[in-house]
Amino acid sequence: MFTDLLRRPAKPRVTAADARRRFRTWRGERPFWAGVFTFQASLPILYLPYAHLDLGAMPLALSTTSGAGSLIIGILLMALGLSLWYQQRLRVFAGIATLLLALVSFPVANFGGFLLGLISALIGGSLACAWIPPTAAEPPTASGASATATATHGASAAVPAAGEPT
Predict the structure, then answer these.
(1) Is the overall model pTM greater than 0.85, yes or no?
(2) What are 59-117's pLDDT values in tens digits?
(3) Fewest C-beta in 10 Å: which of 22, 81, 101, 163?
(4) Of 24, 1, 21, nearest to 11 (Cα)?
(5) What is the CA 18 to chain-centroid distance, rounded?
(6) Residues 6 or more apart in contact with residue 73 via CB below 8 angstroms
(7) How far apart are CA 159 and CA 162, in angstroms?
(8) What is the 3-state secondary structure (H, E, C) of 47-84?
């Protein structure tokens, strides 16, 4: 259980709100959704070549020679998804590698995990390449401050039109 500096138990609602705020801050500083889609793409690519599915009374075994290729592609996609979360500097490399692995998974890994892994990897790689790190907010300039003051006062501040004497 969490405690504060005075050893009083922390309120669960405050702790949950603080954890949510910290997670939102962490998520906003990295290509979070690109990592989610990339990691998610690895699951069907890894699972389907080793699965034994039953369609009614008919067994469906997908274990083919693509098992080793699927294993390599799936593990690489997992590693790229995690690197997108923890190594933001590698986002362009990870995005391009994800896109290439997605395209390679189509012929190698049972149509890219029956298109589930392929489409998810294409979305994740595209999001990784398009993500831009957040920048610090710029302080307002003098002209920006006067424009803000005029906008906040609205009609109460009379601004002379062009050509009118002040």
Answers:
(1) no
(2) 766 666 667 888 899 999 999 999 999 998 999 999 999 999 999 998 888 788 889 99
(3) 163
(4) 1
(5) 21
(6) 42, 45, 101, 104, 105, 108, 109
(7) 9
(8) HHHHCEEEECCEEEECCCCCHHHHHHHHHHHHHHHHHH
Instruction: Give me 87's structure tokens.
Output: 């190594």
Let me know if 146 is exposed, middle or buried by CB neighbors in 10 A (0-12, 13-18, 19+). exposed
Name the nearest CA neighbour of 124 among 71, 82, 69, 66. Answer: 82
66 and 109 Cβ atoms separated by less than 8 Å: yes
Residue 97 CA to residue 86 CA, distance in Å, equals 16
